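Appendix B. One record, verbatim.
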Amino acid sequence: MREELATTGSLLYELTDGPGVVTECRDVTRRALREWFGDAGGPEQEAAEDALLLVSEVVTNAYTHGGVPYELRLDRREGALWVQVSDTSPVRPRPHGRHHANRPSGHGLYLLQRLAARWGSVPRGRAGKTVWFEVRVRPEGPARPSRADPEDTA
């Protein structure tokens, strides 16, 4: 991954197809959350963990279903992190039937629907599409409670 632009409140990265790109995207997002949102973007905060999980899902989906991913963009908005991942496929993401928690894959769009404040995709002309999502980040807040709720794992 190569940094193309770094300005206050906005980061734009060119993605490569090398090993570890999903981990790199998570690391970049983790640093941006911490820098832009302070403690609210730190470890153990629900919004930060949700954002990192969704970055992993969207980047992985771009590699799996989206042709060639070429860009990750992070923007700080008022109380929110806005993430965009662009790839070369014009095919917009859509659920392939009802979500089944016991399946080993196919959870990305379900997670976007559950965890993101908003999400969608937009065409990029001949350059494919951009899948975007927004996660609200509270300015202050205690460490999140555990999600190890038996109902969540059923």
